[in-house]
Structure prediction request, 491 residues.
Amino acid sequence: MLSLWLKRKMQKLSKHIYTISEITQVIKGLIENNVGEVWLQGEISNFKAAASGHFYFSLKDQNSLIMAAMFANANKGLRFKPEDGLEVICFGKVDVYGPRGQYQIIVERIEPKGLGAQQLAFEQLKKKLAAEGLFEASHKKSLPPMPFSAGIVTSSKGAAVRDILQILKKGSPCVDVILRDVRVQGDQAAGEIAQAIEDLNNFGNLDLIIVSRGGGSTEDLWSFNEEKVARAIYNSKLPVISAVGHQINITLADLVADVFVETPSAAAKIIVDKKNALLAELVDFKHQLNFSLNAAIGELKNRLTGLTHMLKSPLDRLLEKQQQVDELLTGLNYNLGHFLELAGERSNSLIQRLGALSPLAILSRGYSLTMLLPAESIVKDIDQLKPGDKLKTVLHQGFLISAVEEVFNHEG
Amino acid sequence: MKDKSTFEEDLKKLQKIVEELSSGKITLGESLKKYEEGVKLAQSCSQVLAEAQRKVELLMKKDGKFSLEKFDDSDPVEK
Prediction:
């Protein structure tokens, strides 16, 4: 009863009683028509990415705040990750969200202020991958001493592959090449590059992988900044050389790769240089072998000379002794001669003295010596003789033979 | 291909021989033997590096299976 009364009273006071939805629609219409699509600058806060893929956040400046939503279809291609505190410029439509009685901006496009979106995306991903350790030097593999087979991930129609093959052909024709043809720009490129790196790892028989592309704009090279590619390089069991032609910016592929160079040619040159270095080393090895062998022989020679010296020295000593003996002999001869001389002199005087006593000297004074023949025994006693005995009588200057005629005894 | 797989082994052997020989701790007879072996290894390694037979192939993948196709790497005719 009362309600009916009230209703009538209200109808008299104003022409229309709105429902909430009606008034919301009115407000929505007013805002959409009068505000509509706008560019808006502000700082992101309360950022949330819902499971549905939609982003919800608010944009604020010093005094005010507006709720914002960016739906999955709009944020799908977004290259950077919106985050709290980031100053952005958005384009979108201001709208009313009925269920909450809230006005908000439905963001169609969002750009970080200052940095380009791409650059920001790069910085963000770089930070993330660095935190995960993808760029760690400790994870980097060293290249084999001599890569004999190289896998190349690049476009088979590009300049990069031509450059690499030409340099290898000329400088290092012992290297086999397995090429995996991929797109190197465009939306599909990153996926293909990542897959190719995995494929070459699975294919086996390779010593390293070169991921390459000729020079181009930052936009052209973007695939080499994508997470998929970075992770594929990180997960590669084979060492990876990143050779993306660029002058200004280092790509994420470069940062993750085990070795990075700035041109495809430089990647090929690494292999050629390795080969040349090895060849030089081999020559050096040969020299070292020669040197060592000569040194070994030289040392043996020295030892031999040393030994010969040791053998020679007793001989020397012998000669020395011989010389000594010779000297002694000379001395001995002299002494002996001297002694003999002295002895001679002495014997002469003795002989002279002896001569004076000789019976022969007595004979010279007129005595004679009688011997009985044939024994020549000296006759000292007359009893030794009988008539008929033959005698030899020695006088001073000769002797005579005589016969005994008679024997007289002094007493007789 | 076979000699390439043994290349690194040969290189290591060669390095060892060079070291052994330079140490001067082995007899002359051994030295001569090692020298001969070392020179042979150096020669064969150099030969492998100088080899000019190389293959350039395109790796194809179909239904998860790999196959190789010849890739023409002859220098493009200059314009």
Q: What stands out?
A: Residues 25 and 52 of chain B are 39 Å apart (CA to CA).
